[in-house]
Zinc-dependent alcohol dehydrogenase family protein
Amino acid sequence: MRATIIHGERDVRVDDVPDPRLLTPTDAVVRVVAACVCGSDLWPYRGVTPTDEPKAIGHEFVGIVEEVGDDVSTVHVGDFVIAPFYFCDSTCVNCRNGVSTSCLTGGWWGSTDRDGKPVPGAQGERVRVPLADGTLVATPEVPDDGLVPSLLTLADVMGTGHHAALSAGVTTGSTVVVVGDGAVGLCAVLAAKRLGASRIVAMSRHADRQVIAREFGATDVVPERGDEGVARIKEMFDGVGPDCVLECVGTKESMDQAIRSARPGGMVGYVGVPNGGPELPVGRLFGTNVGVNGGVAPVRGYVEELLPEVLSGAITPGRVFDLELPLEQAAEAYAAMDERRATKVLLRP
Amino acid sequence: MRATIIHGERDVRVDDVPDPRLLTPTDAVVRVVAACVCGSDLWPYRGVTPTDEPKAIGHEFVGIVEEVGDDVSTVHVGDFVIAPFYFCDSTCVNCRNGVSTSCLTGGWWGSTDRDGKPVPGAQGERVRVPLADGTLVATPEVPDDGLVPSLLTLADVMGTGHHAALSAGVTTGSTVVVVGDGAVGLCAVLAAKRLGASRIVAMSRHADRQVIAREFGATDVVPERGDEGVARIKEMFDGVGPDCVLECVGTKESMDQAIRSARPGGMVGYVGVPNGGPELPVGRLFGTNVGVNGGVAPVRGYVEELLPEVLSGAITPGRVFDLELPLEQAAEAYAAMDERRATKVLLRP
C-alpha cells in the first residue's frame, strides 16, 4: 500500500510499504477514509526533532474496518471508526482513571506495539489497529462524507482542545483566554464555548483564523503577544486576568504568556507539546496561585461525549481544515502547514 | 512593648520597640495572646534568605482587640480574633476570587501597609492590624485557653494544609500522599481526612510526628524518600500512584518526589514555599498529565469553614505544637525548630 514516510528534515514522501494485516486476535485493520497532518508532525519535518531513519508518520485517522481479529467484539467489518492519536486498551487502571494516553499496554501510531510488532503510521491507506476494542469508536452508521472532517477532529484536535478546557477547569461562567490559533487553539475555543464559558478571548493575528474563532464562540480577539498581550488581557479582566488560560502552542513564549495572563488563583490548561522545555517558574506560580494542568490529551475518553454533537451538527470542528489533498500530495500538505499557507490539512487516500 | 527582631543569621532577639497604635480609621490594635514560629521563618534564621537590617518577624497570631479605628465595624474591643498570616481587605477582586494572599491592598506582617506605614511582626506583644474588617475573624466568644493552639493554626498551618488538599482536588474517596511531616504536612493529613480521602499516606521518618499523623487520619506511614519513596508509593496504589499528592516542604527534592509519586492524571497540591526553585519539569508533567496547583495559601478565606470544627473539638490541629515558651525565649523557640527538637513552637507574650 501507499503510506507517508518521513526521511529527514523537510523530506516527506509517499512510499510503497507492506500492507498491514492482523497480527494478534485483538487487532483490526482499518482502511483510512481520511487522515491529517498535526502541528506536532512539523517538529520532525522542521528538523527540530531529528529523524534518524525513514519512519512512518501520521497519527490522526478515521476509516472503515476491513478485518477484525477473533477477540474483537465492539467493532465490526464495515463500521466507520474514529481512532484516537494513540492506541489503548481502555481497561487498565490509567485508562479507567481517564488517562488513556498513559495506557499500560498502549502505544503510538508509526511505532510498535508492546510485543514489538509494527504499527503503521496513520497517513497511509490502511492501519493495523492493536487493541481494537479499546482504541476504536464506531459511529452508529457510516456517516455522510460531509461529516468526515469534523469526525476526524475527534482523533486529536477537538479532543485536545477539550482537554485544555477541562484541565483549566472551564465551566459555566468561566472567563477564558486561548493562546494559539492553530487547529487545537480554535477547537479549544469551541470546547470552552460548549462548556459554558461566559467570555472567550482568542489570541490571534490571522484574519482567517479569527473568523473561525468567532464562529466557534470567541467573544473577543486579541492580536498582541508577549508583554503587550498580557497587559491587554489583564486590562480586559478586572485588571487581574481571566479564570482560565488554554495554552495550545507549546513554546516557551506561549507558556510564559499563558502563565502571566491568568488571574491569581487561575488555571492554565496546556496541551501544546512542550518543545524542549520550558521548565515552569515555580516562584511565580506559587506567589500567584496559578496552577498548571494538562498534558498529552486522552482524547479516546472524550469521543463518546463529543460524537453526538458532531453527528447532529451542533458543533462543526471540521471547520479547522482549510485544505484537502490526496494522500499522494502529503509532501505538499506538510509544506503548506509549515509555511502557514494552511491551518490544518486533510489527506484522502 | 517587647517584640521579636531578627538581626541576622541565627540571631533572633526580643527587643523593646514602640507600641503600635491606630494609624488609619480601618486599623485595629490587637494584644497578642499567642503567636508562633513558622517553618518559613527558618529561611532567614538559617541565612538562606539574607537579613540586611534588623527586622520584625512572625506572622501567625491570635489575640484580643484592644482598639479599633472609626471605620472598623466587624470586630470590637474585647473580641478574640484570628489573624491570617497576612492582611487583606476581603473585598477586592482577588479576595472575592478566593485569593486573598493576592489582595490588591493587603500586605505582610513585619512590613508596611500600602501607604508605607509600619506593620509590626506578629511575635510581639501587640500588632497594628491594617484593614481590620477584612483581615480579622472574631470568635463568637472568648474561647477557653485550651483552644488557643488549635485556633492559632487557623492563622497559617491548618489553612495551609487545607489549601494543599483543595489545590490537589482532594474529595470523597481520593487517595492521598502527603510529602512533609512538619506542622503543615500534618495539617494537610487532617485536611485530607475531613475532605473525605479514603487513604492517606504520611511520608514521615519521625516517630512523634507519625503518631500525630495517624491521629489526624493517616492510614499509612512511609519513611522512605526519593526514588525509594516513589517506588514504595507507586506499589501501594495499583502500581501507578495516588490521585493527589500534597507537597508541604518546598525543596527541589520534595517537589520532585511529589511529582513523580502522583498517578498519571493526578494532581500535586503544593504549599511549601519554594526555596530558590525548583523549576517544574514540564516534559514529565506533560507526558503524565500530572498537574501542579497551589501556592501561598489564602487562609483568611478558610477560617469560617474550619473555625466551627475547632471550637467544637471535631478537629484539634493544635496538636502540632509540641513546645510552648514565653515570648522572651523566642531565640530558644527558633533554635528548637531549627535543630528539629520541636515541630512547632507556640509563644506566649
